[in-house]
Write a structure and sequence with these properties.
By secondary structure, the protein is mostly helical. Helix 1 packs antiparallel against helix 2. It is globular, with a radius of gyration of 16 Å. The mean pLDDT is 94.
């Protein structure tokens, strides 16, 4: 039963990684609502290319595997579990709080498609993953 939080987080990061790989290999579905936009709605804040998207996808896949390795007590990852999980929880919490302009709970730009999805899905998911990661620290 104590492995369920690990499984949940691992699956979420795995699915997020799959979406990123999908976009790397030419997928278009959902791509318009995952990049922050300037208030004019048509201008993106960043323009990640395929290489950067591939790197991000690989990071998400690695995080997914970290949860699996820790839940199954696979060394050497398991030896650093507290440091790894604490770092992930803090990064996810910082993402949920945001940078006060385009992302997070305290963003100023709120009328773009990205901002609406960020408020409804991305930011609460980051907070949930952060909380579950903190739980993982204490149960393992």
């Amino acid at each position: 039963m104590t492995f369920l939080p690990f499984v949940f987080n691992s699956l979420v990061f795995f699915v997020v990684a799959l979406f990123h790989y999908y976009w790397v290999f030419g997928g278009k579905k959902g791509i318009t609502v995952v990049i922050p936009e300037i208030e004019t709605k048509s201008k993106k804040v960043i323009f990640p290319g395929k290489i950067l998207t591939f790197v991000v996808a690989s990071i998400f896949l690695s995080i997914s595997l970290l949860y699996v390795f820790i839940s199954f007590k696979i060394e050497p990852v398991y030896s650093f579990k507290t440091h790894i999980l604490t770092s992930l929880a803090v990064v996810l919490l910082i993402r949920a709080i945001g940078e006060f302009k385009y992302i997070g709970f305290f963003k100023k730009v709120k009328n773009t498609d990205f901002a609406k999805y960020d408020t409804k899905y991305y930011t609460p998911l980051c907070l949930l993953l952060s909380i579950i990661t903190a739980i993982c620290i204490f149960i393992n």
